TrEMBL record:
Xref: SUPFAM superfamilies: FAD-linked reductases, C-terminal domain, FAD/NAD(P)-binding domain
Top-level lineage group: Bacteria
Organism expressing this protein natively: Streptomyces lomondensis
Classification via Pfam families: DAO
Gene name of this polypeptide: thiO
Keywords: Oxidoreductase, Thiamine biosynthesis
Catalysed reaction equations from the record: glycine + O2 + H2O = glyoxylate + H2O2 + NH4(+)
Cross-referenced Gene3D superfamilies: D-Amino Acid Oxidase, subunit A, domain 2 (3.30.9.10), FAD/NAD(P)-binding domain (3.50.50.60)
Keyword set includes Metal-binding: no
FAD dependent oxidoreductase domain mapped to chain residues: 8-358
Regions that span the bilayer: none
Record-given protein name: glycine oxidase
EC numbers for this chain: 1.4.3.19
Length: 389
């Protein structure tokens, strides 16, 4: 092994979650390093960037809703700070979202979502099909009704990743452009990593933020390894015409035959259509079937998409966790913390994750809003001691 270089905090993984953790840690005065062969890459290169705390609400996920809303509230200041620091335009667009129904089943599903949103104190407004089409004239005539959610916005995740790399550089974060191959453990404490080229990187605290790869790092004790799995999402990108009036002025989404489809229009003219959800391990092949289903479902919502140039197809891997919520903070191994498992909400949860991780690195304690997301909720020993008598 070649010589060891040390930092206070070493972040494994330079996706948006690792980068925001490194940036916020460096702002707190920690000498911080990130190890990743391609910082700014990962799932953010594929994600649509919906900030959809309200429209992506699911039964049984009310605890996660609290964290999602906390992060959504921070987005305006977070985006402004990042843009001011780096000069990068993040494509942050406070455009709102319209979730629509195409048939009686979809409509019943959306009515239930509306009821759940109201029980949870969230703002959303039921619209008739005609009202939906008045808002978005490109919608299909068959739209039967919808939910207008003015608080669910969007950001361009590629721009966000680029800005976070720049922010880290500004704060003096050191980038090691290599794969982390093995966690180093010394005297029952995480002490750094060895990279694929045999370089040893030492650190006072190590944050594992490797997205869907987080459960695979060699050297991490079995009982501490995060239960994170890859969930494939295929996405297509089209280009909207620049002509009088927008093609779509807000995110439009629906459940079509049980599958979620969304269309996210950017100010740049890009239209992102996503996403499949497939449990296929590490496969990131773009398939004819995946693209067909996305375009078929999107076409049912907005028939005019068939006229648009198809500019990109891509697949990425969401880091799924057993309860669809992230794993944040200390593990059972001293010196090893996690920031992973963000599943469908990585872009939305970026601001609150950065703040929570910087707080726990500095104090040893997660802030109140992040406590339910301790990785220890999946440890057998903790689960047994917390059983009610
Ligand atoms: N949050 C959108 C997705 O994961 O597809």
């Amino acid at each position: 092994m070649s010589r060891t270089r040390t930092s206070d905090v070493l972040v494994i993984g330079g996706g948006i979650i690792g980068l925001v953790t490194a940036w916020r840690a460096a702002q707190r005065g920690f000498a911080t390093a990130v190890v990743d062969p391609e910082p700014g890459g990962g799932a953010a290169q594929v994600a649509a960037g919906m900030l959809a705390a309200v429209t992506e609400l699911h039964y049984g996920e009310q605890t996660l809703l609290g964290l999602n809303l906390a992060s959504a509230r921070r987005y305006p200041d977070f985006a402004a700070e990042l843009t001011e620091l780096t000069g990068h335009d993040l494509g942050y667009r406070r455009c709102g979202t319209l979730a629509v129904a195409l048939d009686a089943d979809d409509r019943a599903h959306l009515r239930e979502l509306h009821a759940l949103q109201q029980q949870s104190g969230l703002e959303s407004q039921w619209l008739s099909g005609r009202e939906c089409r008045r808002l978005e004239p490109m919608l299909a005539p068959g739209v039967r009704g919808g939910l207008r959610v003015d608080g669910d916005h969007q950001i361009d995740p590629r721009r966000l990743a680029g800005a976070l790399v720049a922010a880290c550089e500004r704060e003096g974060v050191v980038f090691h452009r290599a794969w982390a191959e093995r966690l180093t453990v010394v005297a029952d404490r995480a002490a750094g990593v060895v990279t694929a080229d045999g370089t040893g990187l030492g650190a006072g605290q190590v944050v594992l933020a490797g997205g869907s790869l987080s459960g695979r790092l060699a050297g991490v004790p079995e009982d501490v390894l995060p239960p994170v799995r890859p969930v494939k999402g295929q996405v297509v990108r089209l280009t909207m015409p620049r002509r009088h009036g927008p093609f779509l002025s807000r995110t439009v989404r629906a459940v079509v035959r049980g599958s979620h489809v969304y269309l996210v229009p950017r100010e740049s003219g890009e239209l992102v259509i996503g996403a499949t959800s497939e449990e296929l391990g590490w496969d990131t092949t773009v398939t004819a079937g995946g693209v067909y289903e996305l375009l078929r479902d999107a076409h049912e919502l907005v028939p005019g998409i068939t006229e648009l140039p198809l500019t990109e197809t891509r697949a990425g891997l969401r880091p799924g966790s057993p309860d669809n919520a992230p794993l944040l903070g200390p593990t059972g191994l001293e010196g090893l913390l996690l920031a992973t498992g963000h599943y469908r909400n990585g872009v939305l949860l970026t601001p609150v994750t950065g703040d929570s991780m910087a707080h726990v690195l500095a104090t040893g304690e997660l802030p109140e809003e992040a406590r339910p997301f301790t990785p220890k909720r999946f440890s057998t020993a903790t689960a047994l001691t917390e059983q009610p008598a």
